[in-house]
Amino acid sequence: MAEPLWDKGWRGELGRLLEIVALVGLVVTQPLLDVLGRSPDFFLFHRADPAQILLLLALVTVLPTAAVALLGALSRLAGRTTRALTHTGLVGLLVAALAVQVGRHVTPLRGVPLLLVAVLAGAAGAAAHRRWRAPGRVLRLAAAGPVAFVALFLLASPTSAVVLPRGDGGAAGTAQGSAVHPPVVMLILDELPLVSLLGADGKIDAGRYPHFAELAGGSTWYRNSTGVSGWTPNALPAMLTGRYPAKPVAPHYSQYPDNIFTAFGGLYDIRAEESITRLCPPSRCEQPVTPEQGLGVLVRETGKLLGRVAGPTESAVDPEDSYREQTRAEAGLDAAEPVPADPKFRWDSLDDNQPARFTSFLAGLKPTTRPTLHFLHLLMPHSPWAYLPSGARYDAPEDLPNDGAGWVDLARQRHLAQLGYTDRLIGETLRTLRANGLYDQALVVVTADHGVSFRPGAQGRGMDAIKAAAGEVAWVPTFVKEPRQQAGRVDDRNWEHVDLLPTVADEAGVRLPWRVDGRSARQAPRTDGTKHFYDRPGEPVTFPGGVPAPPPLPTPHPLVGTEVRAGPAAGSARVADLAAFTATDPDTGALPALVWGDVPDRIPDGTLLAVAVNGRIGAVVPVVPADPGGRRFAALLADDKLFHAGTNQLAVFQVATDGTLRRLSLS
């Protein structure tokens, strides 16, 4: 008996749908869930609750498949032949997209060559699907893949602990005899190499960073202090549990039940502002003050992630660059404190610029009847670099390179500028503690989880950077001010950040109910100077200790700061966002302080360009080979006194070998 046409057609449509499910699962669902499953910090930073994560999971899994399947189904309106050809075309496109991702992993091809190979692979895949039945059968079996990908994400990935948390923290610590429990103030900075703070003499550069120098002058500076990982989801739990990273798990209380918040919770009130961890369980901590950022932010950032994992070129963007702290104004918070009269700093706009978590932290620094642990992990001076030392903000392209000729120097300049702003926040913290009467009686800890390398060819904080520049990645500033400590001192013992919790617990009179790998500063120093660093949990690398020497600061070009008059014309340059210079309002706290653009090919690489605002040179930078965005120069104008309200005159000059300046016309 012949099979009814409607039944045969239904089965054919089901088969086509399964093939689309399989291919979209491989092209979209699997790579996205793989990255997101290994990045619980993405959801923790954006303060996504389980319902939002599950909704995002549904969108990632269903929406792309539904869109492609609907396109194919609509083609049936034009007839069975058109439907078949459309399906074959969709299969070819998806195979090509898959080939791009596979090619990036298994071949050195990038960009246009990889796209050409992917197009050929897509055409071959479409032809094979059209000619033989076997490829379609394999794809229909592979339609079970997305179900497996979702199951792994929910049940086995590090992010599963954030979606389906289990447990509510470990045992509380107990008092050490009749110990007094002082207020504890902990400020954990992020991506701050010790060497960035040092002058040529190995001391804190008080001229550039007066408030860090002030902090060092009244605390114990553990100068030989190192983080244990270049990745915050591994480094911060090690600091707050006293244990080296052992497993790749979420920085979540269900995975690290024994941490400072659970240990102090029985004796202390906890006021914790975490950024990309959630180590404080709900039973110990109040809900965050700043609002959740919503599903829209998750969808937007996930879309950007898909563009990076599916593109034919390597992404130069650090995923954590999306972890931009909200300002007080963006979060809708009130000002933390009246601003002091300090002519050195734009205090009038501090409350608009400072991140919301810092504002909330300052607002909580007040005496209380019970001992209180005040904790803040602040993503400063971590990229994205957006602040000048004055506190003014500036915009920059997300894909601006951090490595390569000229770009490494610019990245370090931007880092140091944001460090100058961070120094101001340290000063505001010390001022608030003194104004509220907490400074003398409190245990104050300021440190960073890890550093970052600005070594050419090894920029960042992974293993390449550790091998090339361990002194920039591992060594971090660590200051511990004991209650009633008056004078500063330097301690060069072999400090590793697993020592932080046992030291704080001893100073706070809290006995930890679990074994730690670290050693309290009240104990004798280690006799072994070996450092331990974990690029991957459970896989330590070791290197010798010793305080690193700071890299020399670049000598400012003698033209910087000088006045310049219009010189002879020498050609042209293209500059991004020239309109920003025609309507500048410094009172908004934002300035067009980063200038980037292109120059004609006839201007050779290495040629110096002087960038001036209102007749004064603010930076001298080299012309470099064009980056993927077509940019051949970029200059940071770190001195906001170059700008005034209203129209500002931007000028770019070509610096001849004899020092002559030739103006380039701008467009």
UniProtKB/TrEMBL annotation:
Annotated transmembrane regions: 53-72, 84-103, 109-126, 138-156
InterPro entries, A to Z: Alkaline_phosphatase_core_sf, GAG_Ulvan_Degrading_Sulfatases, Sulfatase_N
Source organism: Micromonospora arida
Residue ranges of the region described as Disordered: 311-335
Source organism superkingdom: Bacteria
Alphabetized UniProt keyword annotations: Membrane, Transmembrane, Transmembrane helix
Taxonomic placement: Bacteria, Bacillati, Actinomycetota, Actinomycetes, Micromonosporales
A Pfam family matched in the record: Sulfatase
Domain Sulfatase N-terminal, chain residue ranges per copy: 348-510
Protein's UniProt keywords contain Secreted: no
Gene3D superfamilies hit by this protein: Alkaline Phosphatase, subunit A (3.40.720.10)
Protein name: Sulfatase
